[in-house]
Amino acid sequence: MSLHEQPNREMVCRRCKTLYYPLLNSATACRFHPSFFVSRRHDDQQRYYELKPGDPPYAAKFYDCCGAEDPQAPGCSAAFHVSYDDS
Length: 87
Ligand SMILES: [Zn+2]
Ligand SMILES: [Zn+2]
Known about the structure:
The structure is a single chain. A two-stranded antiparallel sheet has the order 1-2. Strands 3-6 form a two-stranded antiparallel ribbon. It has a two-stranded antiparallel sheet with strand order 4-5. By secondary structure, it is mainly beta. It contains no helices and 6 strands. The site of one zinc ion has 6 residues, from loops.
């Protein structure tokens, strides 16, 4: 924790945009996807988005990091929250 942080003040995480207290920050506090939500077939060719009737064949959308197909899926990686003050 850097010196200028105020542990009792709410901070906004630069990565997940969640409000957090620096005092409660931990190595598992921040859940995020290290990669982007993409629109293509899974690399492993095994898990496919269930295409609905009328969906174009490229409608497969998922996180490139973990294959989660729900944009709201909880992050597959965890780390400390990152404050905007950190450089
Ligand atoms: Zn992920
Ligand atoms: Zn965070």
